[in-house]
């Protein structure tokens, strides 16, 4: 187990800034997820922690010791990357045991540890097969077993589930979370999938354009997004964002008015999650529009309402489907709204 501290960690590739001075302290045993869209600097950050890429600026400390310049092999961490990089000519057992073999662990102990690691990811019956004879999910588990066989002090995982189909991903996600909790090994995990981040993380770091947007528990990031980028990135579908103006205690938009207590004045962006909105007859609603689409999701229905020149997503009950093109109203619970600055999108903390 280990703590990891990043001090003003930065990386440039020529003129391109891949990561801007990043400050972060990762606790012992923590499951930390780096979340952000493609190109925001996630893999670059991981590769620097792993020792595969030299930082342009700043320091990396593992257990309080600066590791800049120390070879990847000597940092005592295990990596699982998107392409599992298994050795095709080795059996599953040999693949899992390889990190022990290169460290000179004797054969008997190696076998014992390989069997234990394989059992943890439910691969016990497959140790003699070769990677080509496995499904994608089984290969993924071989890569995981190879990471855990050595009980390193730190796991680095970069989109390790991205090659799996949706169902297997959900299963492996639960297995991974369970495994990490039972091992208690500090884990840094990269994904662009916000559901994966929400379900796995103790804390999420949202990255965008080489900078941290927010650090918080999944609950904090979901319920109090720090800016419009985080609000529009987290949640499925994400938070609705409406630009308008606050005047005389109400948010005013071309499509209607939402009364707000103790609100600031001027131009703002109003945010509301789909599950915090309700449909109503146009005469009883805060905002009015027409039904753009109505999708039954099983346990709920997602209704997209065309309001002004945008769409507002409303999550309602499974029996509340709507006819496309119908005139409809949207009710907003004022206490469940979020306000952001029109300029720059920063969260405004003036809500009651
Ligand atoms: N070796 C390199 N040389 C030049 N530019 C690079 C190099 N590696 C990464 N970059 C650039 O740095 C930025 C961050 O890349 P990075 O791989 O960290 O993104 P990412 O967040 O992992 O994205 P993805 O979700 O697509 O994997 C990108 O603009 C990328 O093009
Ligand atoms: Mg990447």
Description of the molecule:
With 352 residues, this protein is an alpha+beta fold. It has two domains: 4-229, P-loop containing nucleotide triphosphate hydrolases (Rossmann fold, 3-Layer(aba) Sandwich), CATH 3.40.50.300; 238-341, Nucleic acid-binding proteins (OB fold (Dihydrolipoamide Acetyltransferase, E2P)). Helix content is 24%, strand content 35%. The chain contains eight helices and 20 strands. The protein has helices at residues 42-50, 92-101, 107-120, 136-148, 166-183, 194-200, 218-223, 228-233; strands at residues 4-13, 16-26, 31-35, 57-62, 65-66, 77-81, 154-158, 186-191, 203-208, 211-216, 240-247, 250-253, 256-259, 266-272, 277-280, 287-296, 301-307, 310-316, 327-332, 338-341. The strands form four sheets. Strands 6-7-8-3-9-10 form a six-stranded mixed β-sheet, with helices on both faces. A hairpin with a 2-residue loop joins strand 4 (57-62) and strand 5 (65-66). Helix 2 (92-101) crosses helix 3, helix 2 runs parallel beside helix 4 (136-148) and helix 3 (107-120) packs across helix 4 (136-148). The chain is elongated and about 75 Å long. The two termini are 42 Å apart. The mean pLDDT is 93. The chain binds adenosine-5'-triphosphate and magnesium ion (MG). Magnesium ion binds next to helix 1.
Q: Helix count, per DSSP?
A: 8
- Tell me the fraction of residues in β-strands, as a range: 25-35%
Structural class comes to alpha+beta
Q: Strands across the major sheet, in which order?
A: 6-7-8-3-9-10
CATH architecture heading of the largest domain:
3-Layer(aba) Sandwich
Tell me, briefly, the overall form.
Answer: elongated
Give every kind of bound small molecule, once each. adenosine-5'-triphosphate, magnesium ion
CATH fold label of the largest domain:
Rossmann fold
* Sheet having the most strands: 6 strands, mixed
């Amino acid at each position: 187990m280990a703590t990891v501290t990043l001090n003003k960690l930065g990386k440039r590739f020529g003129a391109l800034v891949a990561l801007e001075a990043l400050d972060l302290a990762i606790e012992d045993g923590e499951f930390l997820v780096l979340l952000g869209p493609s190109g925001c600097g996630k893999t670059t950050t991981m590769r620097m922690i792993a020792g595969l890429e030299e930082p342009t600026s700043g320091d990396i400390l593992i257990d309080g010791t600066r590791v800049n310049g120390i070879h990847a092999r000597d940092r005592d961490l295990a990596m699982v990357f998107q392409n599992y990089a298994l050795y095709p000519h080795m059996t599953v057992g040999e693949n899992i045991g390889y990190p022990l073999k290169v460290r000179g662990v004797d054969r008997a102990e190696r076998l014992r540890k390989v069997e234990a690691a394989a059992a943890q990811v439910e691969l016990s019956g497959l140790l003699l097969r070769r990677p080509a004879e496995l499904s994608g999910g089984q290969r993924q588990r071989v890569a995981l077993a190879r990471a855990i066989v050595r009980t390193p002090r730190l796991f680095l995982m970069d989109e390790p589930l991205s090659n799996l189909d949706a169902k297997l991903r959900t299963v492996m996600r639960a297995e991974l979370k369970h495994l990490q909790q039972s091992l208690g090994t500090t884990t840094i995990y990269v994904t662009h999938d916000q559901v994966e981040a929400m379900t796995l993380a103790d804390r999420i770091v949202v990255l965008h354009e080489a900078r941290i947007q927010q650090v918080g528990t999944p609950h904090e990031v979901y319920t109090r997004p720090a800016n419009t980028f985080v609000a529009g990135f987290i949640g499925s579908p994400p938070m609705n964002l409406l630009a308008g103006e606050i005047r005389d205690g109400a948010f005013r938009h071309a499509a209607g008015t939402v009364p707000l207590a103790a609100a600031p004045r001027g131009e703002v962006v109003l945010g509301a999650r789909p599950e915090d909105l309700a449909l109503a007859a146009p005469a009883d609603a805060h905002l009015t529009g027409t039904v753009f689409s109505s999708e039954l999701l099983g346990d709920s229905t997602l209704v997209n309402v065309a309001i002004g020149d945008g769409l507002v997503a409303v999550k309602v009950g499974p029996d509340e489907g709507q006819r496309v093109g119908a005139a409809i109203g949207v009710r907003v619970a004022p206490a469940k709204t979020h306000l952001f600055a029109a300029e720059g999108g920063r969260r405004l903390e003036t809500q009651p």
